[in-house]
Amino acid sequence: MMRCTLGVDVGTSSTKGVLVAEGGEIVASATRAHEVDRPHAGWVEMDARVWWDEFTGITGELISAHPDAQIVAVGVSGMGPCVLLADENDEPVRAAILYGVDTRSGAQIQRMTDELGAEEITRVGGSTLTSQAAGAKIAWVSDEEPEAWRRARRLFMPASWLARRLTGAYVLDHQSASQTSPLYDIEGESWYEPWWQRYAGSIEQPRLTWAGDIAGEVTAEAAAGTGIPEGTPVITGTIDAWTEAVSVGAHEVGDLMLMYGTTMFLVSTGEDTLRTPSMWTTAGAFPGTRNLAGGLSTSGALTAWLKGLTGADYPDLLADAEASGPGANGLLVLPYFAGERTPIQDPDARGVVAGLTLAHTRGDLYRAALEATALGVRHNVETMRAAGADIRRIVAVGGGTQGRLWLQVVSDVTGLVQQVPQTTIGASYGAAFLAATAVADTGSAPVITDWNPVTATIEPDLNLREFYDTLFDRYLRLYEGSKGVVHELAAEQRGRRHG
Fold first, then answer.
1. Which of 218, 291, 318, 481 is the most exposed place for a label (fewest CB within 10 A)?
2. What is the per-residue pLDDT across 36-53, written as a single tens digit (0 to 9) for each?
3. Is CATH 3.30.420.40 the right assignment for the domain spanning 250-422+461-499?
4. Does 2-241 carry CATH code 3.30.70.1290?
5. pTM, whole model, 2 decimals?
6. Integer Cα distance of 53 and 68 in angstroms
7. The two domains 2-241 and 250-422+461-499 share their CATH topology (first three levels equal)
């Protein structure tokens, strides 16, 4: 028998699973694509029952294809922070509300900030309240959907939902809990009782553990539904961006993980609790670490939109974009097609394409979109550093790392060297590693750099530094100069969709 760990991650656009051998080799992988629901402007949600259905489908596929695999532990991971409220029988009372791309809770953010005080919220939880704050979305359900709220008894996120279905344990990791602002005390590493009782008093508090801790063992019922042997240990898991950082070894002090996906995420790791109004301060995936994190609301989603709009395939678009060259022949794009998270924290921001002429091509547009995401990354990195983040190493991960051009554009725009590891499949691989670590004998725990060594380094073209410094300045000024009109358009969009 071949000893393996199983890692499964529920992402924004798909659920991915991997079967990983003891040395880190991926034995097999499986994916189930899905879509989120956008029933109103600013709403992004998903039926949580899909998560379990896809989990069981993936495990069934992997296990049946490899009957010689002995699964010794299971790792779980998922997008977040999400808000899935369930009743006393663990039945969802409504669709899960997704992370910061869902911007419905603006009124609750304002009310809670007024009631508690922005300074006190930051002192307790580390971050101001933004569209990323899961606590404000809990309050939204309480305010706007009283029937669902009346039945709500438990709080889950994708990873903890899978852990619950597999083991019966009701747990949540500290990292995810720290994004349930303002309900978590970051220095005390515990739920903040006064505010939990005020805004979520009828919800049973999940037990807090760390991402790699064992939540429980696979029950007989879960074994029958998944094919995973009864009694197999399951870790608590955490949010996908943090699991991705684990998958590439970018969770040490001084590391910055840059995740290329449907959205883009950045996680800087340190020992100190850094606070800045425009970023997210969180607990780390491991005890003794803190993170300063940020995220773009669109990255891969923007390039996918252009692909659909043009009808071209990615290889052709990338070739056209490469031919377009730096600056996209005078185009500049703001990538705020779904509002923006950090560092501007503006749910009413919208995409802007500036400089268009009849001479511009689809390659120019695609190049400008890649540069837009890179400019957004630079804005985040500079904001982190201004807050005191010591960023010594950048590690890239996610599906977007398969294309060299996007990586090169980001390095050129930011001036940063990026390391690309051998395996960039992401959070499912990190979940499998955490599971392997959780059941390893003392002194024989796996090392991620052995599992997943760096195989490519992207160096910035220093000849482009001055050019991109100028473009970044224009990027910042374009947002400030256009946001008044853009906010009016966003309000009109909301009124039209609700009317």
1. 481
2. 999 998 899 999 999 999
3. yes
4. no
5. 0.86
6. 24
7. yes
